[in-house]
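hi! just following up on the protien thing from before. the input was this:
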Amino acid sequence: MQRSNHAPALLPSRFMPACISRSDALPWVPSTTPGKSSKLLRFLPDDSGFVELLRMEPGVAMPLHRHTGAVHAWNLSGSRKLCTGEVIGPGDYVFEPPGNEDWWKIVGDEPLHALVIVMGEVEFLGPGGEVRARASAKSQREAYEAHCREHQLVVQALM
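and the predicted 3d structure came back as:
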């Protein structure tokens, strides 16, 4: 039997179908921070985290926050300056371990677009270190669904 480089017409039953989110069909959901919005791509099981395409306008700052789980962020465009002074530009990848506390600001003239995988929650901190707000898979899903209802958009199954 001759092998082909083409995919077989029928896939073996051991393969699961891919879960595809067409980002162009998803809305930008505004944040409570002006100039910050996100496209929610996936909500992870058991409220364990979420995946988003983050957009922030030049000059907008991400306030002081702490991560309860690991965070992976890949800058697609734009630049941000971390509180430690490093500038993260297009193509750069940042890993933040659980417990990491930081803040950062968008620098330059171009909006930031980053693919971000958040495990656990993001705790936004006040000046005394108290938790003022939290972002979790549950809160992000609620914001996404509320935005869709408000704008009469179809809520996609992003789980």
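The chain has a mean pLDDT of 90.
The longest helix spans residues 137-150.
cheers
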